[in-house]
Amino acid sequence: MKIALTLHVLFVVIWVGGMFFAYMALRPAAAAVLEPPYRLHLWKTVFSKFFLWVWISIATILVSGYWMLLVPFGGFSNAPVFIHIMHSLGIIMVLIYLHVFFAPYKRLCNAVNNKDWHAGSKALNQIRILVAINTSIGLVTIIVATYGKFMI
User: Fold this and answer.
1) pLDDT tens digit string along 64-100?
2) CA angle 2, 79, 85 (to 5 degrees)
């Protein structure tokens, strides 16, 4: 159980922390100093590295989360409300990520490869909005996780 919890928290930090850094620090810095072609190349490269870690994070978070749900609680029927909330928010985050990866990120890659800076900027803006939403959901989920544990 300790290993599952450690892995769960570690990969939540990697995913949510990575989004927070990208949105709050990298995005404004890149926008301030890079012209669109360079900025779009940067984001394509950043996402290609970060998204590998997101896939690993999602797999680890889901496996460790379901393990912690099944072992002490025997499933959802015996789990406290905060576990249900965390699960629901986590699934929403995964669905948003899947959309980002398979839609606007693919459009961003194609646009950069074709030097279509207008289409690339449009795709990057869609990613920006969805990352902002996912970062917010991730932070709320962390609050639910830490606060909810004290309500048992």
Assistant:
1) 999 999 999 999 999 999 999 999 999 999 999 999 9
2) 95
> Is 71 within 8 Å of 90 (Cβ atoms)?
no
Rounded mean pLDDT, 57-66:
98
Token pair 């939403």 is found at 133
Distance from C-alpha of 152 to C-alpha of 134, rounded to nearest angstrom:
27
Q: Tokens at residue 94, please?
A: 């995964």
d(CA 112, CA 125): 14
User: Which range of residues forms the domain containing residue 58?
Assistant: 2-151
- Residue for token digits 């970062």? 135
Contact between residue 53 and residue 14 where contact means Cβ atoms under 8 Å apart: yes
